[in-house]
Amino acid sequence: MSNNNRLRIAIQKSGRLSKDCQALLKQLGVKLNLREQRLIAHSTNMPIDVLRVRDDDIPGLVMDGVCDLGIVGENVLEEAQAERVRNEQFAEVTKLSKLDFGFCRLALAWPQELGLQEKAWFNGKRIATTYPEILKQYLKRENIDASVVMLTGSVEVAPRAGLADAICDLVSTGATLEANGLMQGDTILESNACLIQNAALTDQSKLALIDKLMPRLKGVKQAKE
Ligand code: ATP
Ligand code: ZN
Q: pTM of the predicted model, to two decimals?
């Protein structure tokens, strides 16, 4: 539904995925004139526009066809899809490829001084997270009756601040948990960045361009192995 025939790709403006996204586009041969504050960057050698937004906006932009492609963490994608499904909104995207960056896991953690805990310990507890939908699905699956406290940031300080008993947060090295006196428990989701496409895309010239880019992406991934 984009209003012109240039392929629109949404990437994170600034954050953990931005550098890798920019590097990937370059490796795919997409030449961009990225100016710091611009929302849209036009490719100078292909009919491609790159939209630079918050990662949380990327699934919705692609689901609604505002952008044709997007690069986003599976954690953000799954949360957005679950939220849309709950609200009975369109939640489909086509996952074209997993990418080899943005690795992290969504894991439970609680204050170290409590020591090892069984799943049953979470019954009646409050768990702070930025991923309420993914966490609720997990709690349901595991038959745990805990309440979910939604925080958009600083989740790791929630137990110390008395806002929650435990957290469910993104972890890569575990250093942040350790620095906050938390110990890591079950992993709820393993995630990396992925390339998604609007599920209703029918524009033939855009599909042809994607077909041209995909073998290049495969080549880039193989070269790294
Ligand atoms: P934005 O301003 O775009 O909303 P953000 O603060 O939500 O940014 P970042 O911290 O930049 O997001 O993380 C973007 C994505 O990078 C995460 O959603 C996740 O997929 C991935 N990621 C990889 N490692 C980590 C980590 N250790 N902590 C958080 N995210 C990570
Ligand atoms: Zn975000």
A: 0.95
- Pocket lining: 156 vs ligand 1, CB cutoff 6 Å: no
Ligand closest to Cα of 155 equals 1
Residue 128 has what pLDDT? 98
Question: Can you tell me the ipTM of this complex?
Answer: 0.96
β-bridge partners, 104: 191
Tokens (6 digits) for 117: 């805990």
What is the rounded CA–CA span in Å between residue 43 and residue 55?
21
Helix (H) or strand (E) holding 220, with range, is helix 204-224
Domains, the chain, ordered by start: 7-102+192-224 (3.40.190.10), 104-191 (3.40.190.10)
Residue of 170, 184, 192 to mutate, ligand 1, most atoms within 8 A of C-beta:
170
d(CA 117, CA 65): 44
Distance CA 135, CA 141 (A): 10
pLDDT tens digits, 109-167:
999 999 999 999 999 999 999 999 999 999 999 999 999 999 999 999 999 999 999 99
pLDDT of residue 2: 47
Residue closest via CA to ligand 1's atom 3 equals: 54
Please, which residues have CB within 8 angstroms of residue 41's CB and are 6 or more apart in sequence? 32, 33, 34, 35, 49, 50, 52
Indicate the pLDDT class of residue 205, thresholds 50, 70 and 90.
Answer: very high
In terms of Cβ atoms closer than 10 Å to its own Cβ (0-12, 13-18, 19+), residue 101 is middle
